[in-house]
């Protein structure tokens, strides 16, 4: 997939996610979102440069899964309070 299609797919996914589960106004959620975006950008940079990482892909997936679980748990907590 070329870069422009990939960017369009990401933008569409972000738009759909924002409609389904808008970000709560919580600084910790914002921090988790930035952390996950930084992690993904770094992984993409390393992939472009064909750099081998110390972490196997399973560890990277596990880290992103943990971030996602924490994010959605906080979003559900905030949603249930409303």
From TrEMBL:
Superkingdom assignment: Bacteria
Name of the protein: Uncharacterized protein
Organism (species): Bradyrhizobium cytisi
């Amino acid at each position: 997939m070329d870069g422009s299609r990939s960017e369009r797919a990401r933008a569409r996914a972000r738009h759909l996610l924002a409609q389904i589960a808008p970000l709560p106004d919580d600084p910790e959620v914002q921090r988790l979102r930035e952390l996950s975006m930084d992690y993904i950008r770094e992984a993409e940079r390393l992939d472009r440069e064909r750099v081998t990482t110390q972490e196997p892909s399973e560890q990277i997936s596990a880290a992103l899964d943990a971030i996602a679980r924490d994010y959605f748990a906080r979003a559900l907590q905030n949603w249930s309070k409303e």
